Amino acid sequence: MEDYRDLMDFFTILIFVNMPATHTRKKEGFQGQKAIVIPRKILHTRCADEPIIRNLFVTDIGFYPKAAFHYRERAKGAEQHILIYCQEGRGEVTIRKMTFTAEAGDMFVIPAGTPHTYMADEANPWTIFWVHFKGGAATSLVNQLEEKKGLKSFLQHPEKSIGFFHEMYDQLERGYSHDNLCYTNMCLWHFMTSILYNEKQQPGGGQQKDQADLAIDYLKNQTGRSVTLEEIAAVVNLSPSHFSFLFKKKTGFSPIEYFNQLKVQKACQFLLFTRLRIKEIARELGILDQYYFSRLFTKVMGISPEQYRKKNQINRTVTKQSAVHFY
């Protein structure tokens, strides 16, 4: 019955779109449209109960090019969360009684159960990609997306997101085998990541960096000495208090706490890949008191430097012995 209702909703949209035009200009249809509504039985038995993908999975997916007269209203919202990306043209989206204009590059997130309406612009109808999704982690992911980006955001670098969309769609077109569903929904994680952290998706692998990112770049090259909050703030041209606030808001840690984590990360590499003594490693990190270094390491890693080295030496020995027995 659920599948029937979904298909009826889908065909209702098509009927609406293909009604005779009452406007003077020529009607543009959904030429090139495509959509997949995954059978609800498949979702229940092969997605919601599958440990690998049950935390995030696609339920419906589609692409509507130049979708003239496209209109959708859900007074009680949808059972799934919805993402809509406007590739070109214009439209209008209303969520929680807030109305947004949709233009090329705009992304909308509509949480499950949220009343909404969306429609294409009559004069310049939109081209949209859309995905409905559910899962154990879906609501938390949508909440983070809304908190970070808002209900409406702009994708500066949509190339990877669109690429992941096509990968998901192409796999689902091949049916609902276990492998196809797993591949599709693992791609969904990448798709969501490319939206949530779109600023990291610059062509050529670059990244648009804010003051916190620039500070981290600086700190990565200073692990061999001590730095002060004032010094780091000066590098990014901010006052220490304002910089500290922005840095902690983005990373969840104070600048000095973050810097100490980078130092301990470097210490782990020394412990794993060199024979330097603890005192010598401390000096490599600009720490003259090896006991302070040991306390700092233990605070971050939960074990002492000596225990860390011993534990990983044992693990490497076991791995090596296992490899010998295997051959």
Shape, per Cα inertia axes: elongated
Topology order in helix (H) and strand (E) letters: HEHEEEEEEEEHEHHHHHHHHH
The side-by-side strand order for the widest beta sheet comes to 1-2-9-4-7-10
Q: What structural category characterises the helix and strand content?
A: alpha+beta
CATH superfamily of the largest domain: Regulatory protein AraC
Give the end-to-end Cα distance, rounded to a whole number of Å. 57 Å
DSSP summary: helix tally: 12
Global Rg? 26 Å
Q: Give the number of DSSP strands.
A: 10
CATH topology of the largest domain: Jelly Rolls
Name of the top-level CATH class of the largest domain: Mainly Beta
CATH architecture call of the largest domain: Sandwich
Low-pLDDT ranges: 11-29, 317-327
Largest sheet, described in full?
6 strands, antiparallel
Percent in strands: 15-25%
The whole-number mean of residue pLDDT values reads 86
Proportion of residues in helical segments: 40-55%
Overall structural domain count: 2
